[in-house]
Amino acid sequence: MSAAASFRRLLLPAGALFGAAFVSIQFIHPPLENPPVTGDFQAPVAVKSIVQRACYDCHSNQTNLRWFDKVAPVSWQVADHVQEGRAGLNFSTWQSLPPADQKAKLWESVNQIIAGAMPRTDYTLVHPAAKLSAQDVTVLKQYVASLAKNPPADTAKRNAADRQYRHWQPTQAVPATVPVAPNGIAYLPDYKNWQAISTTERFDNGTMRVVFGNAVAVKAIRDKHINPWPNGTAFAKVAWDQLADAQGNVRPGAFKQVEYMLKDDQKYAATKGWGWARFKTPELVPYGKDALFTTECIHCHQPMKNNDFVFTQPLKH
What we know:
alpha+beta
């Protein structure tokens, strides 16, 4: 028997086995339902049409699956992407978010688009209608910019900062019980003794931030070992209201929150090598309903995956 004949004899059973396996896995479908829309995203028509076309399949309860999205094993990946997308941002429950959080989500989304992280390239490859043109991006940027209205701080805002300070000053804000985030990371009061390594602002919500780094982070900066950052690195990003006067001078106002990133590529392997935590208001209320809040953190930092998921770079000295 010739080699070609032998190969054909082997190929036919292998093809039949593959075909049978392919048919069998079509009966395995991860659950992917479209829950009711409880508070849809509202925006000008031009903005909403772009968002619906580019974002709704993964970030709403109105997912429109094409026939090829339903073929296993592709359907398994689709279901995973949709579940993850809804967890980070769901336009079908938009009205449940406070206005400030809505603005923050839009700010994050537009920055993800600008960075090229969204829409995902593996998605637009088979859903070309979701691709965004330069004009689409301009429309979204202009819309988000129109939401950022930060006039000079009024008396109420200044008084709020003063009241917060008077309440904090006698105790120096030392909590009786150390707050703990849903993923087990505790509030670290010692960040106040770390070194300031950078500053940033969010013009969309009128806040200013200072990024502090611990001794490991400072040494890594000095040694130019920041991509990746070494294990033991810790950052604290502290946010305050930004109070501006009529001349444009700014100073910190009321304390808003402190966020932590703690590097340990073994302990936090499931969350991109970083431990994430956020504590809000002077009461240091832990952010997130459960440990899955880290999905939101990772989604936000995804555009910086080639920079070890760190946005703000240390200032050069």
